[in-house]
Write a structure and sequence with these properties.
2 copies of one chain form a homodimer.
Chain A: H1 3-14, H2 21-31, H3 37-49, E1 54-56, E2 64-66, E3 74-76, E4 83-85, H4 88-98, E5 103-109, H5 113-124
Helix pairs in contact in A: 1-2, 1-3, 2-3
Chain A binds a DNA duplex through residues 2, 4-5, 20-22, 34-39, 41-43, 45, 62-63.
Chain lengths: 125, 125
DNA sequence: AAAAAAGTAGGAATAATTACTGTTATTAGT
DNA sequence: ACTAATAACAGTAATTATTCCTACTTTTTT
């Protein structure tokens, strides 16, 4: 567990959004300025393989990384691109319906609360 | 609706698997040998935007295209990469749980029947 | 401390996809 | 039918996300 790998893992764990490799790289650069994007990708890949983080493939966008290990779906906001977790009851019902399955990706496109509010304000004016 | 676009649309509609741009291009080349991959991509994109076909983003693989327009999930076989449709009752229960949502991508990784059989045979020997 | 192993930086390579350019085909107006 | 305008195409260059490669550095083992 090198200094870089440690920093990369921390960056994912500290994040509340679901960062992609670029965002992680930018964050790690604050502490280790000469870290390379290649190193970030390699370590994110390894950490995901080792099961310390999860890699999520968002359609039409770069892969993102998630500190939460239990399987769950994601919501992508079409307006701002923000990725958030879907509540557990949704994955629970899905898993029940699916039965035997190795893993799944569920990505829902729906407006986040922030953007919904913003639109309401705009319509009022 | 040009000859090329027509051919590309037909290729998707005729397909029973969920072809990617390359597969479509190969199929269209049988009729129009000098069609270019760029044209295939451009038209697949347009057809998807116009709602005549659906574009599905499979994690860790090239996008695939689907003649079926109603929302539904997909199963990817980890052994052979084959993509098939999930039964309707799964999407129905998911949509019920989701409530308000623009669209979703559901990709499940699970062994297809073919590969399951093949593995059984191998174990028996 | 020397040798071996693991890890890194930086850039080249790859794959999927899109954008650009010059050419061709189609349509509309006269 | 003839020309101008529009749309589409082929082919290629560019972009983006990602992995691979090579030489260098750090860490571990003996």
């Amino acid at each position: 567990m090198s200094r870089q790998r440690e920093a990369i893992l921390s960056a994912v764990r500290e994040s509340c959004c679901h960062p992609d490799a670029d965002m992680i790289c930018a964050r790690v650069k604050e502490d280790i300025p000469h870290v390379s994007l290649g190193t970030v990708y390699r370590n994110l890949g390894r950490l995901a393989e080792e099961g310390l983080i999860r890699r999520i493939a968002v359609p039409f966008a770069a892969d993102r990384f998630d500190k939460t290990l239990t399987p769950h779906g994601h919501a992508v906001c079409p307006s701002c691109g923000d990725v958030s977790d879907l509540p557990e009851y949704i994955s629970a019902s899905l898993e029940k319906a699916l039965g035997e399955c190795i893993s799944y990706e569920l990505t829902v496109r729906r407006e986040c609360e922030e953007c919904k509010k913003l639109k309401n304000i705009q319509f009022k004016n």
